[in-house]
Fold these 2 entries.
Entry 1:
Amino acid sequence: MQKKTAPEKYRPNTTIAHAGSNPADNQGFVNPMVVHASTVLFPNVATMLSGNQPYVYGRRGTPTTEALEDAMSTLEGAAGTKLTPSGLAAISLAMLSCAQSGDHLLIADTVYGPTRNLCDKVMRRYGVDISYYDPCDINGLGKLIRKNTRAIYTESPGSLTFEMQDMREIVACARAHDVLVMMDNTWGTSLYCKPLELGVDLSIQAGTKYIVGHSDVMIGTVSANERAWPALRAMHGDLGLHVGPDDVYLALRGLRTMSVRLERHMRSALEIANWLEKRDDVARVLYPALPSHPGHTLWKRDFSGASGLFSFELKPASDSSVHAFLDALSLFGLGYSWGGYESLALWAQPRSARSATTWEAAGPLVRLHVGLEDTRDLIEDLEAGFTAFHAAKG
Ligand SMILES: *Cc1c(COP(=O)(O)O)cnc(C)c1O
């Protein structure tokens, strides 16, 4: 039997292969058991009343859910992690764990669209005040903090438009006002960005994306430091959130290969981003890993890699030429989500989803997820798109 590993002491690519795994406690099997469970039996009333049995009820946790939670906590350097049925559910859990009626939350203007919807519709309805802030204006952020501000919500880089936030400055500002910081770290993943090391209290991921990696499961994770963990843990239990064991298992299985997949996503995305940047029909490429990106220095400081998702702005063109571009693609599928092995494209329209800032761009924006395919095929696919784009422009 293998000895119990202590993944904290290893480098990230080793940690990701072993974190949360304990074959010695699992009859030698490398992977955890997939436990389908609601009821757990107790040997007698005294044990039932004592609360000392490790597992008491399916919803409260099983060896399967604990394996993924432990792996995520180790990777994130967290006091604890909770799993949710989707990435959006992870965001609502994190928000509900730190705000109540009468509190105020500051939300980056460039957040994932459904996060904004959650704030505007649900949080406001339950009496939580919401303000949006310019993700790149740290002085402006400080001025928005009120007596009842409980947390600053961040997402770096921002959805669709990839603005980098200065996480160190935001954390310093939050600390000075005794305010919590949440970060949606789906783009960076636990491998390329370590929010808790930057001082963030709650690190959120849509595991649906790179952790799962195969576009076949929806799951979310929230990892918390000591300060935020008790409230997160309690809210998760109170809400009754639970993820089915097969989905948890697939997420853990995906996690084990995330480092090799991400290396390829990054290499291919950089190649395609560089190729796009040289084209006359492209106005700019919004990918923090490119030296031309306004947030490149922040990315280099706080991230150790980039994932395969970025946007580019076309030179001004009609709606019908954007349609023609996207409809001519065959390897890049038209679809939501990202982080799977396959390439995706969509027409990004950030203008209507901004309230503290305005999206200034003369041309249309296309978001690409660069999958694991051969980049020569992907570039040929994009070339077909550009041919159709120009034909439609006439
Ligand atoms: C997709 C996504 C989410 C939501 O994840 P789901 O699993 O689809 O609910 C949250 N944040 C970001 C940045 C995302 O891209």
Entry 2:
Amino acid sequence: MAAEIRHSVCALDCPDCCSLLVTVENGRATRLRGNPEHPITRGFLCAKVSRYLERVYSPQRLLYPQKKHGNRWVRVGWDEAIDEIATRLKAIAAEFGPEAILPYSYGGAMGYLNGSGMDRRFFHRLAASRLDRTICAAAGGAGLKATLGSRIGMAPEDFRHSRLILVWGANIHGTNIHLWPFIAEARRRGARLVAIDPVKTRTARLADQHLEIYPGSDLALALGLAHVILAEKLEDRSYIERCTTGFDSLAALVAKYPPERVESLTGIRSDEMVQLARDYARLRPAAIRLNYGVQRSERGGAAVRAIAMLPALTGAWRERGGGLLLTTSGAFEINREALECPSVHPRQPRLVNMSLLGWALTELDNPPVKALVVYNSNPAAVAPDQARVVRGLQRADLFKVVLEQFETDTAAYADFLLPVTTFLEHTDLYFAYGHYYMQLARPAIPPVGEAKSNVEIFRLLAARMGFDDPCFQESEDQMIRGALTCSNPFLNGVTLERLEAEHFVRLHLDEPFLPFAQGTVHLDAAGLEYSPPLESRLGDKELLTRYPLELVSSKNDDSLNSTFGYRDEVDAQTARLWMHPCDAVPRGIVTGDPVRVFNNRGACRLLALVCDDVRPGVVRAPSVRWNRRSPGGVGINVLTSSRLTDIGGGPTFYSCLVQVEKCESSISG
Ligand SMILES: Nc1nc2c(c(=O)[nH]1)N[C@H]1C(S)=C(S)[C@@H](COP(=O)(O)OP(=O)(O)OC[C@H]3O[C@@H](n4cnc5c(=O)[nH]c(N)nc54)[C@H](O)[C@@H]3O)O[C@H]1N2
Ligand SMILES: Nc1nc2c(c(=O)[nH]1)N[C@H]1C(S)=C(S)[C@@H](COP(=O)(O)OP(=O)(O)OC[C@H]3O[C@@H](n4cnc5c(=O)[nH]c(N)nc54)[C@H](O)[C@@H]3O)O[C@H]1N2
Ligand code: SF4
Ligand SMILES: [Mo]
């Protein structure tokens, strides 16, 4: 049979949500590339996904359902697996109440159907505990909403019109590569690029200027920039009068943040900060690409609130190429009621914050969690406070079902391990959080082995539980039509028929798209007073004497959270601890040394990389490594705390104090 080209969409948790072309020969995918016709994908893929077919056909891929017998896996048929799981869930619901069942999912499959479709219907009908999905973007989302009222921002294409671009806690080269061509285009026309990041990332190295901020201090910097803008009368009075509320309270607050004070709070020289504020107000249009790095700290929500106020002070929102982009996801609000069917059960069960999983599995009561169903996630590696999470997963009286493609750290604890399809093997509808195109993907290849999609698995479970509500009979297409039936004006004209024919459809946006040229930006200053994170160089003195280094376990450029943790190159990259010579030399550490990184929550082993790509006092561990590949079997999140962000209930992965010492052996615990 001749080779055929089929369309698909990358479902990884990435703002770019790429449009893919898959070459299929005899039912097997042989080539994967970026769709040249998609205005954001523009024909190229990131390094991690250009090799995705290796993953699809990997010898390590899970191919059939398995059940744990003592310490080993036994292959079972789908019927047997679904039967037994349904029986166990029913028994647990009967004995402890359905809230004893907890679903746990996050970003493995970003489509609506496999990410928040049939699964939600199933757990709603069961009246299981609901999961508050806070682990990634909750603080920033809440911050953006507080200032702007919605979670939208500039179109990425419009960065080509900018003259000043701040990439603020945003590693474009690692995590958002499809924005780079627009930044490059702007720079060819003379735009200036400034990176604000405690780490000299690939992106920071390519910028015109890199401001090495202390982790977690962005709120102070934003207040300082606002101080200079107002003190030097660089603000846009007419925009402020027309489109904002609360200006006076903000002006009163920022008066307390003169450059010298902000220098001591952020580590950014006052003259550089003053210059940045002047450039920001004068080089127009000015754009801010804020990413989620900033909000993974104790004051992260307030930081996003304050940063999002800056374009309102200068009126940057009025110009094409001006404004801010954190996320575009708010424009994709579909009909959640139709997609998730919360009303299949009259009761609203309790809500459990996923960032507190360790607590939920070891302490939560009335009822305790007795069954955990994990899909689209690998909490044993990615959740904070790992020691407690793992203790929970080890409970013999906790029934664990994991839907996975690979035997991850979490999968290893499962009682039942069910093989799932990759995005090349199932239908889904895709929103994006870094652009404004809705996309549809149909299966490009048949399921590998006996894999089934999340949608199919939850449909089977529902049937076996005896749930006969019509929503469990719906086909994928019916689910998509329901989801798209809504009053959101951005979705005008976005239909299944068009998506089928065109693969990607631009949302209904004004051209040019100036989302906050009109409207109301909230500048109220309540809650914006800055105090340094407890776990930071200016934080708790007692903690600092024992754990003097700030750990930033930010994203690894060539992987995606823990998804590619089975690859040897990824393991080698995520086994590193970047340290500045000022911190390494006194500890007798040189590149390649095994080091022990520890704090009051735990310890993990890494290999030192001594370099000046982190500022003194900061160590960086590109993340997230698989626990099972780490010496001692624990990963980086054994160090991170379950302290939550100021707003949104998010985790504080990047507010984390540690100590580092050289260890004599690379394997001893
Ligand atoms: N290659 C790759 N791409 C990914 C992912 C991945 O794991 N790898 N993960 C995906 C996911 S789930 C997400 S949420 C996005 C996240 O995308 P980003 O938010 O861009 O990723 P992060 O690495 O979390 O943070 C970005 C930068 O913020 C910096 N940073 C850390 N703390 C602070 C701080 O306090 N202030 C400032 N100004 N900067 C700080 C980090 O050093 C990092 O360079 O990326 C997605 N894309
Ligand atoms: N220290 C530290 N910890 C972090 C972060 C950090 O930067 N530093 N980042 C945090 C952030 S931003 C996030 S978003 C979370 C990410 O946490 P997760 O969302 O758990 O992300 P992954 O680790 O990539 O795991 C996704 C899993 O889903 C599986 N999967 C893929 N497709 C499907 C499917 O169709 N069905 C099913 N059932 N499974 C599928 C993949 O095989 C993979 O194992 O981690 C957080 N943890
Ligand atoms: S991970 Fe991101 S950049 Fe890479 S192919 Fe997927 S959507 Fe595109
Ligand atoms: Mo994330």
